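Q: May I have one protein plus its fold?
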Amino acid sequence: MIPGASPALPDWLLLVVSLPTQSATARMRVWRGLKALGCMALRDGAYLLPAGGQRELALRELGDECTREGGVAWLMAVQARSPDEAAAYRQLFDRQEDYSELRKSWKEANRSLARLSPTELVRLQRKLQRDYEALQQIDFFPSDASTEAAAQWLALAKRIAQLLSPDEPQDTAGQVPRLDRQAYRGRTWATRRRPWVDRVASAWLIRRFIDTDARFKWLAQPSDCPRSALGFDFDGAAFTHVGDRVTFETLMASFGLEDDPALARLAAMVHQLDVGGEPVPEAAGFEAVLAGAHERLDDDDALLAEMSAVLDSLYAHYGRPRAGTNA
C-alpha cells in the first residue's frame, strides 16, 4: 500500500502485458479474455480491474498465457491515493453506455417477436439472456442504468413467455387441499392447446400418477372448458398456480406425490422453466426437445405422447441413486 493511502478505499488490480508482434492470435485471445473479465485499458497493454472474487486468479492466468507466448506480464495491486482518485477509477467502469446499447437491441428484438416460431423465440431468448448476464457479471458498480435495464428485461422476458405460453395463469393464494386419487379416475382433463412446459409436464403427471385413464381436451381459450372437465394451468382452473407453486407442483401437493424424490427433481426443472428459479442441468435440453416437437407436431395428443417418453426417461434418470449415495 502507498504510504498515506486510506485502508478504507477499494483495492484495484493492474495487469501490464506485452506480447511479440507476431503473436496476433495470442494477442486476440488475451484481449478477449480481458474484455470478458470487464477490464478497462488505461493505455495500450495496461488493464485495470477492481479486486475481489476470482479476478486476481483470472488475471494471473492471462498473464501466464502471455508468458507462454513469449511475452511478459506484471500483475500489481493498486491502491487509490484519495477519494477523488478512487472515484475516477470507478468512473472508468461506468456501464451506462453498455446498458443503453443492450436495451436498444432488446427494442429491436421486441419488434420481431410475434413473427418468430417457438424454436426461434427460445433461441433468441437464450442469446439475449446470455448477453445480459455477461454485462451484469462485469457491472461492478451498479447504477440507475442497471435498474432500468432490469425492469426492461423483465418486461421483455414476460412478453416472450406469453408468446410461448399464451394465457399463462396468475398465482393464487391459499393452501393446497389433499385429494383422493380414486375420485379423479377416468376423467376428462382440459388445458390450453399447444402445451408448453408446465402444461405438458402436468398432463404427463396426471396420466402417469393420478388418472391413468385420463382423456385430454385442448382448449383454444380457457372459456371453452366444459363444466364436466377438470381444468388445469389457466386462471379459474381446478388445478393451477398456487402461491409459489406452478401447476405441476400443485398437482403433486394435491395428490400426495411430494415425497417422490424423482418427481421433486422434475418439479424443480418445470418450475425453473416456467417461472424461473435455481438452474437445473437438464432444463435447457428438455426445453429444446419440446420446442422441436412443437415445430414437428401439430396434434397436441401426439405432442404429449412424444414428450411423455422424454419425461419417462427423465423420471427414470432422476430415480437413480446419485453419486456418493448408497443404492
